[in-house]
Model the fold of this input.
Amino acid sequence: MTAEPSVEALLTADEPLSRHTYLRVGGPAQYFATPSDRRQLGRIAAWAHASGLPLHVLGGGSNVLVADEGVTGVVVSLRDACGAYEFDGKRVIVGAGVMLPALARAAAERGLGGLEFAVGIPGAVGGALQSNAGIGDGRAIGALVRNVEVLDGDALRVLERDEVVFEYRTSSLRHSGLIVLSATLELNERPAAEIEAEMRELLAARAATQPTAGPNAGSIFRNPEGDYAGRVIEAAGLKGRAAGAASVSELHANFIVHDGSATAADVVALMSEVQQAVLERFELWLEPEVEWWGSAERPAPWHGRPAG
Done:
């Protein structure tokens, strides 16, 4: 019988996180791991706890801005340990590491609807559950959830639907300290041709209105109540505004793009400029949707509306 590798052997030191995020900026993880199964994940989590190191779980990397200095602790990708799904009638048990577009297409092949909205969201299921990922028409993953399996310390727990609170672009799973392992989603029967037609329309609309070709983190700011962040940013005349190598997209103003040479500091500076300009023009404070990963205090865009 082959001995299991030590936890240290599963870790890579100083792994550049720019390789693992859609925005392609930021420094290294102190340690990075891609456990092959849940057992390895549990061992890594226990090692991190015993070592006094924070554990960060990286999903698809589409909603993350990593500090230029990098991240202290252990960053874990669940793409292998939690990368499978299984359909059972109208339900699907799906691992946290499964990407949403792949799941949406797999459901469509089986004549199951409900996930059409997710075909253009470049994130993994675990992150989607924490952020209640969705699109502008109000559809979001939380409405499909029947239960969520989590790792709570060294214990496995199953949270039923009424134990998880889903709100606009967030949920009670976010910052809870729980590691999301999988979820059971309830879908609905729908002709595959109809599902595929709608997904083609959604993807075409996304390609026409969002800068999907280059590095970006998805929507940078949450939509304010009753409005759209992209609309107010554009109305403030900020399309094309730049800080360093980062700029507000000319295609969709709620996206920050760059040519591959931007730093996290550039993105943070631009976010601050956008927030201040929108505040001065509309008396409206834009809250970040993108998550900040760094070892120091979160920078100004995440501090909330300035007093006065």
